[in-house]
Design goal:
The chain is an alpha+beta fold. It is 25% helix and 25% strand. Strands 3-4-2-1-12-11 form a six-stranded mixed beta sheet. Strands 5-6-7-8-10-9 form a six-stranded mixed beta sheet. Helix 5 links the parallel strand 7 and strand 8. The radius of gyration is 17 Å and the shape is globular. Its cofactor is Mn(2+); Mg(2+).
Length: 256
């Protein structure tokens, strides 16, 4: 089972930038999308990707053109759950969960904390409340996979300019400490565990043409509970796939 995550920075926009062809190249069984920036009533036929065998499920926020997540599936799944069950977060359309056998797989667009203290506080509440949810599933025996745009670079190796971003949301000590806390609860940054010294990014600031210089941040992850690690066959970050300010990443689980 191949799982792909991609913050597309607007699903309608990326449809005009070779999205279908990129999905064909990625060939995912489950494709989580963040920042669709659209409502269900804005869907048109081409977005469904039915000709590629996918079923599309969306969880949109109340505010139009903002946030929102979705998942494409082409394999049988047990359940798709829209939202976290917490109204404060679900109004922004940030969480979608796919259950397949023993796996509870989350596609999440974590908040950006860069718009003042109130928004940073919202982000930290979101982090902590979702961790409670992950832990409850793990403790019940589920194999938990969390993917999406976490909006935090954990360590200095995860961004091009750590020295100048010490006070920038996404690299604040409080945000990085939460990621450390997450890992201490029995989770693993799967790509970093396999590639402890490799420098690779998943997001580049479009305002400064940062992708041209590869001055990026690794803020998109697959974080998995420790009981998933032995199931992982492959992990890939696709820096060469364009269309968004983020690139896609994948985790492939071993077959039976």
């Amino acid at each position: 089972m191949k799982i792909v995550s991609w913050n597309v920075n607007g699903l309608r926009a990326i449809m005009k930038k070779g999205f279908k062809e990129s999905v064909m190249e990625l060939d995912p069984d489950i494709l989580f999308i963040q920042e669709t920036k659209m409502q269900e009533d804005q869907l048109v036929e081409e977005i469904y990707l039915k000709e590629l065998g996918y079923t599309l499920t969306m969880h949109s926020g109340v505010r139009k053109g903002y946030s929102s997540v979705a998942v494409y599936t082409r394999i049988p799944v047990d359940e798709i759950i829209k939202g976290s069950g917490i109204e404060e977060y679900d109004a922004e359309g940030r969480v979608i969960q796919v259950n397949v056998g023993d796996y509870a797989i989350f596609g999440i667009y974590f908040p950006n904390g860069g718009r003042g203290e109130e928004r940073l506080a919202y982000k930290m509440r979101f982090y902590d409340d979702l961790l409670v949810k992950f832990d409850a599933l793990k403790e019940s025996g589920k194999k938990v996979i969390i993917t999406g745009d976490f909006n935090v670079a954990h360590n200095e190796i995860d961004l091009a300019n750590p020295e100048t971003n010490q006070k920038t949301s996404g690299f604040l000590p409080i945000e990085r400490d939460w990621f450390t806390k997450l890992l201490s609860h029995g989770y693993v940054d799967a790509w970093r565990a396999r590639n402890p010294e490799e420098v690779k990014y998943t997001w580049w600031d479009q305002r400064f043409r940062a992708r041209d210089r590869n001055a990026g941040w690794r803020i998109d992850y697959f974080v998995v509970s420790e009981n998933v690690l032995e199931d992982v066959d492959d992990l890939t970050i696709y820096n060469d796939i364009m269309g968004s300010d983020h690139c896609p990443l994948s985790l492939t689980l071993k077959g039976e």
